[in-house]
């Protein structure tokens, strides 16, 4: 079964067509790269899959169930979650408390009255590489590499097995990129499914099984990373070659 099936997805902002009759599949356990120039519509695709933006038309199916009209919390509840290009932690909360919010995503009641599972919080923090001493640090004090780890931790805390990663290497040092890449490889081995957007093609290459390229919301190419990058239209639009 496919984890995701996107069919004839269209998103218009007034006169601008940001997603243009886009169709693609993401198999369970697969890692798919989504590339395209600035403004191609990559983030808009993520936002529609998560229900943060409503598609103009078309359908999104997750594990055989159409989710096109579900709320974002309902989609997260089914097992799909995303990270953001610009990390969005609760800055005043500690690393541990941010993970706790991920564990209780859509219920204020659970946040206030629910049982706190410190062991689970510890496990998630450790699984993304936080040391025990980091857990009480406020998110506002974290450097970019740690903020990216926290994005992963919050996403994993939702219990999602299908993760949409938006520019997870942006703003990182080469050491931090290596650390995040290792984390993704570890999660792939554990059976997670990925759809990832990155402008850092060398960092992304070893992490994906296949790639798709879009321009102005339209699918240009779908295949192995090498074939997609060799595609003439992709080279013209993305790599700026005549
Ligand atoms: N809420 C919005 N209202 C109007 N236009 C929007 C909105 N969100 C995105 N757009 C437009 O839709 C197009 C696609 O934007 P999107 O952010 O999805 O591209 P992207 O491929 O993620 O770009 P980047 O690589 O720069 O992050 C752009 O022309 C953008 O200006």
Automatic annotation (TrEMBL):
It comes from the Bacteria. Residues 4-241 form the ABC transporter domain. This is ABC-type branched-subunit amino acid transport system ATPase component. Keywords: ATP-binding, Nucleotide-binding, Transport. SMART domains: AAA. The keyword Ubl conjugation does not apply. GO terms for biological process: D-alanine transmembrane transport; L-alanine transport; L-isoleucine import across plasma membrane; L-valine import across plasma membrane. GO terms for molecular function: ATP binding; ATP hydrolysis activity; L-isoleucine transmembrane transporter activity; L-phenylalanine transmembrane transporter activity; L-valine transmembrane transporter activity. The keyword Nucleotide-binding applies. It comes from Sulfitobacter noctilucicola. GO terms for cellular component: plasma membrane.
